[in-house]
Amino acid sequence: MKTRLYSYILILSLMSCSYFGARAQGCVAVRQMGGINQLSTSGYSLQKGEFQIGASYRYFHSFRHFVGTDEKAFRQTTQGGFDEYGNEKGNAVNIYSHAIDLNLSYAITDRLQLNVAIPYVHNERSQVLATEKGGKIELDGKMVDQVLEGTRYSVYAQGIGDIRISTNYWLFDQKTSTKGNLMVGLGVKLNTGSHSRTDEGIVLDPNTGEVITQTLVMDQAIQPGDGGIGFSVELQGFRQLYKGIYGFANGYYLFNPRESNGTFKSAPKPGLEGYNIYASPDQYFARVGLMTSILKSQNLTLSLAGRFEGIPAYDALGGQVAYRRPGYVIAIEPGVSFHTGKHSVSVFVPFNIVRNRIQSAADIADQNLQNSTITDDSQKVHVQGDAAFADYSISLNYSYRLGKLF
Questions:
Q1: Most Cβ neighbours (<10 Å): which of 43, 221, 307, 317?
Q2: Distance between CA 351 and CA 70 in Å, rounded?
Q3: 274-320, pLDDT tens digit by residue?
Q4: Global pTM?
Q5: CATH number of 305's domain
Q6: Distances (CA, A) of 138 to 72, 170, 212, 280
Q7: Which domain holds residue 216?
Q8: How many domains does the chain have?
């Protein structure tokens, strides 16, 4: 029974590696939080004075544009000019994200642990610059400029992300709580990742109309950090439901009190000053699921979970006048975990079934400003930006239990 319990705790803790690296997979820029292994992989049996190290890798490719839950499929095929055969090319923004996290856990007592996580990211953003325009065409019910020629180019942002330090505490004694337990955690996110990385992009010269190369600040979706010092609260628990089947749940909320990080997105629109500066947003995550061992050795465990993660339109603390792309994804996440001796590995692949780019504070401010001069209610506008999301992400995790070093 005790071995089986440790096997289930193993997969629950490896899921922690996965979710702390969570992003809403695209332009909704949920920061990777460093893959904190809050249960310390075999954390239910990690004894006072013991150490554990680990590493996590995550990848996603976002390319599907949504306004609300409505996908703008035309972004895949139109508004990017024409190829040599006269076919319209898409102007969707593509983001390719790679993140590696290094993790260290230390058992202060049998029930209290300290965790440190250091992330490194390498992100690419591929986009289209419209270099030649024609007349108006109708797209998605609106009249927009037809792009006769568009140039796709990529920019990059890489480096150390925001380091996270946390502690977690099991509420009940592991020696007697063999059918379930609850963990609470508190953490701090440091401002160690750059939020103002630049790269060489292309723009149109306003005087000549020629395409030129220019140093540009990268979009917040690919920056290594968000520019704020935040603090987090966490809950995680499990319960035996029937013989070898366990239920689990975990949740997390990051409070980022800083209103904006000072990096300019663009020139301000009159009346919307402040919304042209990138925000340091809150983020949240929740997961609930089932897990069970499938081998007599109990070293191989399968799980299936539903997960919900994203960025709110408004922070719980601090000011709101800044730019962000808020939204969330709901995903179905299968996972498999294997452990032998001091080694543990896992793979999780969440598939997004709902993607929602919600209305932001900047959208609402712009909407209110435009509608303030319109007297005919039928002519009032609704402003809501879009964001790109992935179909799925991949998370690989490994940990090694060092034991006591001194």
A1: 43
A2: 18
A3: 999 999 999 999 999 999 988 766 688 899 999 999 999 999 999 99
A4: 0.90
A5: 2.40.128.130
A6: 13, 58, 30, 36
A7: 2-404
A8: 1
